[in-house]
Amino acid sequence: MQIKNMSYIIALAEAGTLSAAGKQLGISQPTLSVFLSNLEQELGIDLFLRDKKKLIPTPAGRIYLEAARRILATQEQTLQSIRQLTTAPPIEIRIGVTPLRGSEVASKIFARFSARYPNIRLRLQEGYMQELRNMVQNGMASCSLGTCFDTESADFDYITLFREEVIVAVPAFHPLAHRPKNTSMEFPQVSPEELSDSPFILMSPGSSIRTISDYIFHQAGFSPTVVFESGNNLVIRNMVRNGSGIGFQPRSTALMDDPDIAYLSLSPRYYLNLCVVTKKGTVLSESERYFIYLMIQNDFHVPYYTPDFNEAARNIWDEFHTEGGSL
Hints:
alpha/beta, Arc Repressor Mutant, subunit A, D-Maltodextrin-Binding Protein, domain 2, 8-stranded mixed sheet, two-stranded antiparallel sheet, 10 helices, about 40% helix
Protein backbone atom coordinates (compact mmCIF):
# COMPACT_ATOMS: atom_id res chain seq x y z
CA MET A 1 0.00 0.00 0.00
CA GLN A 2 1.67 3.17 -1.21
CA ILE A 3 0.85 6.55 0.30
CA LYS A 4 -0.28 7.89 -3.10
CA ASN A 5 -2.65 4.95 -3.61
CA MET A 6 -4.21 5.49 -0.20
CA SER A 7 -4.79 9.21 -0.75
CA TYR A 8 -6.38 8.48 -4.16
CA ILE A 9 -8.78 5.89 -2.72
CA ILE A 10 -9.82 8.23 0.11
CA ALA A 11 -10.48 11.01 -2.41
CA LEU A 12 -12.62 8.67 -4.56
CA ALA A 13 -14.69 7.61 -1.55
CA GLU A 14 -15.20 11.18 -0.34
CA ALA A 15 -15.93 12.70 -3.79
CA GLY A 16 -18.09 9.83 -5.00
CA THR A 17 -17.17 10.21 -8.69
CA LEU A 18 -14.06 9.96 -10.80
CA SER A 19 -14.44 13.48 -12.14
CA ALA A 20 -14.90 15.10 -8.72
CA ALA A 21 -12.01 13.12 -7.23
CA GLY A 22 -9.82 14.04 -10.19
CA LYS A 23 -10.48 17.73 -9.62
CA GLN A 24 -9.73 17.34 -5.91
CA LEU A 25 -6.45 15.58 -6.63
CA GLY A 26 -5.49 17.70 -9.63
CA ILE A 27 -5.32 14.80 -12.08
CA SER A 28 -7.44 13.85 -15.09
CA GLN A 29 -10.43 11.52 -14.89
CA PRO A 30 -8.92 8.97 -17.34
CA THR A 31 -5.71 8.81 -15.31
CA LEU A 32 -7.66 8.17 -12.10
CA SER A 33 -9.84 5.56 -13.83
CA VAL A 34 -6.76 3.67 -15.06
CA PHE A 35 -5.25 3.86 -11.54
CA LEU A 36 -8.37 2.37 -9.92
CA SER A 37 -8.65 -0.42 -12.49
CA ASN A 38 -4.97 -1.35 -12.10
CA LEU A 39 -5.21 -1.34 -8.28
CA GLU A 40 -8.33 -3.52 -8.25
CA GLN A 41 -6.67 -5.90 -10.69
CA GLU A 42 -3.57 -6.05 -8.50
CA LEU A 43 -5.68 -6.79 -5.40
CA GLY A 44 -7.92 -9.23 -7.25
CA ILE A 45 -11.10 -7.63 -5.89
CA ASP A 46 -13.30 -4.61 -6.55
CA LEU A 47 -12.96 -1.70 -4.14
CA PHE A 48 -15.95 0.26 -5.47
CA LEU A 49 -19.33 -0.50 -7.01
CA ARG A 50 -20.14 1.64 -10.05
CA ASP A 51 -23.80 2.63 -9.57
CA LYS A 52 -25.02 5.21 -12.11
CA LYS A 53 -21.61 6.84 -12.14
CA LYS A 54 -21.60 6.91 -8.32
CA LEU A 55 -18.74 5.10 -6.61
CA ILE A 56 -19.80 3.09 -3.55
CA PRO A 57 -17.13 1.29 -1.47
CA THR A 58 -17.45 -2.49 -1.38
CA PRO A 59 -16.72 -4.43 1.87
CA ALA A 60 -13.13 -4.81 0.64
CA GLY A 61 -13.09 -1.12 -0.21
CA ARG A 62 -14.21 -0.18 3.31
CA ILE A 63 -11.40 -2.30 4.79
CA TYR A 64 -8.90 -0.61 2.47
CA LEU A 65 -10.28 2.85 3.37
CA GLU A 66 -10.08 2.22 7.12
CA ALA A 67 -6.48 1.07 6.86
CA ALA A 68 -5.57 3.94 4.54
CA ARG A 69 -7.01 6.58 6.88
CA ARG A 70 -5.21 5.02 9.85
CA ILE A 71 -1.87 4.92 8.02
CA LEU A 72 -2.18 8.50 6.75
CA ALA A 73 -3.11 9.70 10.26
CA THR A 74 -0.02 7.99 11.67
CA GLN A 75 2.12 9.58 8.97
CA GLU A 76 0.75 13.03 9.81
CA GLN A 77 1.36 12.55 13.54
CA THR A 78 4.92 11.48 12.81
CA LEU A 79 5.56 14.52 10.62
CA GLN A 80 4.07 16.82 13.27
CA SER A 81 6.35 15.35 15.93
CA ILE A 82 9.37 15.89 13.69
CA ARG A 83 8.31 19.47 12.92
CA GLN A 84 7.91 20.19 16.63
CA LEU A 85 11.50 19.15 17.23
CA THR A 86 12.75 21.71 14.75
CA THR A 87 10.26 24.56 15.15
CA ALA A 88 9.23 24.59 18.81
CA PRO A 89 10.98 27.08 21.10
CA PRO A 90 13.94 25.56 22.99
CA ILE A 91 13.29 24.01 26.40
CA GLU A 92 15.93 24.35 29.10
CA ILE A 93 16.68 21.73 31.74
CA ARG A 94 18.82 22.88 34.65
CA ILE A 95 20.80 20.15 36.37
CA GLY A 96 23.16 20.60 39.29
CA VAL A 97 26.47 18.75 39.07
CA THR A 98 29.74 18.51 40.94
CA PRO A 99 32.76 19.72 38.93
CA LEU A 100 33.86 16.14 38.21
CA ARG A 101 30.38 15.07 37.17
CA GLY A 102 30.01 18.17 35.02
CA SER A 103 33.07 17.28 32.95
CA GLU A 104 31.78 13.71 32.46
CA VAL A 105 28.40 14.96 31.28
CA ALA A 106 29.95 17.40 28.83
CA SER A 107 32.37 14.88 27.33
CA LYS A 108 30.43 11.61 27.38
CA ILE A 109 26.71 12.24 27.61
CA PHE A 110 25.82 15.59 26.09
CA ALA A 111 25.98 14.44 22.45
CA ARG A 112 23.73 11.40 23.02
CA PHE A 113 21.20 13.43 24.97
CA SER A 114 21.08 16.14 22.31
CA ALA A 115 20.64 13.56 19.55
CA ARG A 116 17.44 12.34 21.21
CA TYR A 117 16.23 15.75 22.38
CA PRO A 118 17.63 18.35 19.94
CA ASN A 119 15.16 20.98 21.14
CA ILE A 120 16.12 20.68 24.81
CA ARG A 121 19.05 22.69 26.12
CA LEU A 122 21.02 21.25 29.04
CA ARG A 123 22.23 23.83 31.51
CA LEU A 124 24.73 22.46 34.02
CA GLN A 125 25.22 24.31 37.30
CA GLU A 126 28.27 23.30 39.31
CA GLY A 127 28.70 23.25 43.06
CA TYR A 128 29.44 21.14 46.13
CA MET A 129 26.68 18.80 47.27
CA GLN A 130 25.29 21.22 49.86
CA GLU A 131 25.04 23.87 47.16
CA LEU A 132 23.46 21.38 44.78
CA ARG A 133 20.82 20.45 47.35
CA ASN A 134 20.08 24.13 47.85
CA MET A 135 19.64 24.54 44.07
CA VAL A 136 17.07 21.75 44.08
CA GLN A 137 15.31 23.09 47.17
CA ASN A 138 15.09 26.60 45.72
CA GLY A 139 13.94 25.48 42.28
CA MET A 140 17.17 26.54 40.56
CA ALA A 141 17.71 22.96 39.34
CA SER A 142 15.22 20.19 38.65
CA CYS A 143 17.68 17.63 39.99
CA SER A 144 21.31 17.42 41.06
CA LEU A 145 23.84 14.73 40.28
CA GLY A 146 26.75 13.99 42.58
CA THR A 147 27.78 12.03 45.65
CA CYS A 148 26.24 11.82 49.09
CA PHE A 149 26.87 10.02 52.33
CA ASP A 150 23.37 9.92 53.83
CA THR A 151 20.33 9.32 51.61
CA GLU A 152 17.66 9.69 54.31
CA SER A 153 15.95 13.09 54.18
CA ALA A 154 12.58 14.71 54.86
CA ASP A 155 13.21 17.32 52.15
CA PHE A 156 14.74 15.32 49.29
CA ASP A 157 14.30 12.12 47.32
CA TYR A 158 17.44 10.22 46.31
CA ILE A 159 17.88 8.01 43.26
CA THR A 160 20.86 5.88 44.27
CA LEU A 161 22.98 4.55 41.42
CA PHE A 162 26.41 3.33 42.55
CA ARG A 163 28.68 3.47 45.57
CA GLU A 164 32.40 4.20 45.67
CA GLU A 165 34.94 3.44 48.39
CA VAL A 166 36.61 6.28 50.26
CA ILE A 167 40.35 5.59 50.65
CA VAL A 168 43.30 7.31 52.32
CA ALA A 169 46.13 8.88 50.30
CA VAL A 170 49.46 9.16 52.12
CA PRO A 171 52.97 10.24 51.01
CA ALA A 172 55.18 7.35 49.93
CA PHE A 173 57.51 7.97 52.91
CA HIS A 174 54.68 7.78 55.47
CA PRO A 175 55.13 4.89 57.96
CA LEU A 176 51.77 3.39 56.96
CA ALA A 177 52.67 3.41 53.26
CA HIS A 178 54.61 0.16 53.59
CA ARG A 179 52.06 -1.78 55.57
CA PRO A 180 51.57 -5.26 54.09
CA LYS A 181 48.18 -6.03 52.62
CA ASN A 182 45.93 -9.05 52.64
CA THR A 183 46.10 -10.81 49.27
CA SER A 184 42.32 -10.46 48.89
CA MET A 185 42.46 -6.69 49.37
CA GLU A 186 43.44 -4.05 46.83
CA PHE A 187 45.10 -1.86 49.48
CA PRO A 188 46.52 -2.37 52.97
CA GLN A 189 43.96 -1.65 55.69
CA VAL A 190 44.23 0.93 58.43
CA SER A 191 41.90 1.97 61.22
CA PRO A 192 40.96 5.67 61.44
CA GLU A 193 42.50 5.81 64.91
CA GLU A 194 45.93 5.02 63.43
CA LEU A 195 45.71 8.24 61.39
CA SER A 196 45.16 10.53 64.36
CA ASP A 197 48.79 11.71 64.59
CA SER A 198 49.05 12.68 60.91
CA PRO A 199 48.27 16.17 59.54
CA PHE A 200 45.25 16.21 57.22
CA ILE A 201 44.53 17.96 53.94
CA LEU A 202 40.76 17.96 53.59
CA MET A 203 38.13 18.85 51.04
CA SER A 204 36.26 22.07 51.77
CA PRO A 205 33.12 22.00 53.96
CA GLY A 206 29.94 21.35 51.99
CA SER A 207 31.41 18.57 49.84
CA SER A 208 30.35 14.96 50.34
CA ILE A 209 33.91 13.76 50.90
CA ARG A 210 34.26 16.35 53.69
CA THR A 211 30.98 15.25 55.25
CA ILE A 212 32.13 11.65 55.40
CA SER A 213 35.61 12.73 56.59
CA ASP A 214 34.07 14.57 59.55
CA TYR A 215 31.91 11.53 60.28
CA ILE A 216 34.98 9.26 60.28
CA PHE A 217 36.76 11.56 62.74
CA HIS A 218 33.70 11.64 64.98
CA GLN A 219 33.37 7.85 64.96
CA ALA A 220 37.08 7.45 65.71
CA GLY A 221 36.86 9.92 68.59
CA PHE A 222 39.55 12.43 67.63
CA SER A 223 39.83 15.92 66.17
CA PRO A 224 42.31 15.99 63.27
CA THR A 225 45.08 18.47 62.69
CA VAL A 226 43.94 20.16 59.48
CA VAL A 227 46.77 21.94 57.68
CA PHE A 228 44.91 22.82 54.47
CA GLU A 229 41.47 22.71 52.87
CA SER A 230 40.64 22.77 49.17
CA GLY A 231 37.66 22.23 46.91
CA ASN A 232 39.84 20.47 44.35
CA ASN A 233 40.83 16.80 44.62
CA LEU A 234 43.85 17.48 42.40
CA VAL A 235 45.19 20.05 44.86
CA ILE A 236 44.81 17.61 47.74
CA ARG A 237 46.56 14.85 45.82
CA ASN A 238 49.47 17.13 44.89
CA MET A 239 49.89 18.26 48.49
CA VAL A 240 49.90 14.64 49.65
CA ARG A 241 52.52 13.88 47.01
CA ASN A 242 54.66 16.73 48.34
CA GLY A 243 54.44 15.40 51.88
CA SER A 244 52.23 18.13 53.37
CA GLY A 245 49.81 15.65 54.91
CA ILE A 246 47.35 12.85 54.23
CA GLY A 247 43.82 13.01 52.82
CA PHE A 248 40.69 11.10 51.98
CA GLN A 249 39.97 10.49 48.29
CA PRO A 250 37.29 8.71 46.23
CA ARG A 251 38.73 5.45 44.84
CA SER A 252 38.26 6.60 41.24
CA THR A 253 40.72 9.47 41.71
CA ALA A 254 43.63 7.26 42.84
CA LEU A 255 46.72 7.33 40.61
CA MET A 256 48.11 3.82 40.94
CA ASP A 257 51.24 4.55 38.90
CA ASP A 258 52.32 7.51 41.07
CA PRO A 259 55.43 6.43 43.03
CA ASP A 260 55.08 9.31 45.49
CA ILE A 261 51.63 8.35 46.83
CA ALA A 262 50.41 5.23 48.61
CA TYR A 263 46.78 4.32 49.20
CA LEU A 264 45.10 2.61 52.13
CA SER A 265 41.63 1.20 52.76
CA LEU A 266 39.87 2.07 55.97
CA SER A 267 38.70 -0.56 58.41
CA PRO A 268 35.74 -0.44 58.61
CA ARG A 269 35.26 0.66 55.01
CA TYR A 270 33.37 3.82 54.13
CA TYR A 271 31.52 4.58 50.90
CA LEU A 272 30.06 7.50 49.01
CA ASN A 273 26.75 7.08 47.20
CA LEU A 274 26.58 8.28 43.60
CA CYS A 275 23.06 9.58 43.37
CA VAL A 276 20.53 11.98 41.91
CA VAL A 277 18.82 14.39 44.30
CA THR A 278 15.34 15.78 43.69
CA LYS A 279 12.96 17.82 45.78
CA LYS A 280 10.60 15.62 47.79
CA GLY A 281 7.74 14.39 45.63
CA THR A 282 9.19 15.65 42.32
CA VAL A 283 8.12 13.76 39.18
CA LEU A 284 10.92 13.95 36.62
CA SER A 285 10.17 14.52 32.92
CA GLU A 286 11.00 11.90 30.30
CA SER A 287 14.06 13.86 29.16
CA GLU A 288 15.33 14.16 32.74
CA ARG A 289 14.85 10.43 33.28
CA TYR A 290 16.70 9.71 30.04
CA PHE A 291 19.58 11.89 31.23
CA ILE A 292 19.82 9.76 34.38
CA TYR A 293 19.66 6.60 32.25
CA LEU A 294 22.67 7.82 30.26
CA MET A 295 24.57 8.43 33.51
CA ILE A 296 23.84 4.86 34.63
CA GLN A 297 25.06 3.51 31.29
CA ASN A 298 28.23 5.58 31.50
CA ASP A 299 29.02 4.61 35.09
CA PHE A 300 28.71 0.88 34.41
CA HIS A 301 32.10 1.19 32.70
CA VAL A 302 33.83 2.57 35.82
CA PRO A 303 35.53 -0.38 37.55
CA TYR A 304 35.54 1.28 40.98
CA TYR A 305 31.77 1.83 41.11
CA THR A 306 29.62 -0.84 42.72
CA PRO A 307 25.97 -0.91 41.57
CA ASP A 308 23.60 0.06 44.38
CA PHE A 309 20.30 0.82 42.64
CA ASN A 310 17.13 1.64 44.49
CA GLU A 311 13.67 1.13 42.97
CA ALA A 312 13.62 4.56 41.31
CA ALA A 313 16.90 3.82 39.49
CA ARG A 314 15.69 0.39 38.36
CA ASN A 315 12.48 1.89 36.98
CA ILE A 316 14.45 4.41 34.91
CA TRP A 317 16.71 1.68 33.56
CA ASP A 318 13.77 -0.53 32.58
CA GLU A 319 12.04 2.40 30.87
CA PHE A 320 14.85 3.10 28.41
CA HIS A 321 16.97 -0.04 28.21
CA THR A 322 15.81 -1.91 25.10
CA GLU A 323 18.59 -4.47 24.86
CA GLY A 324 17.21 -6.70 27.56
CA GLY A 325 18.03 -7.24 31.19
CA SER A 326 16.84 -5.48 34.32
CA LEU A 327 19.15 -4.01 36.93
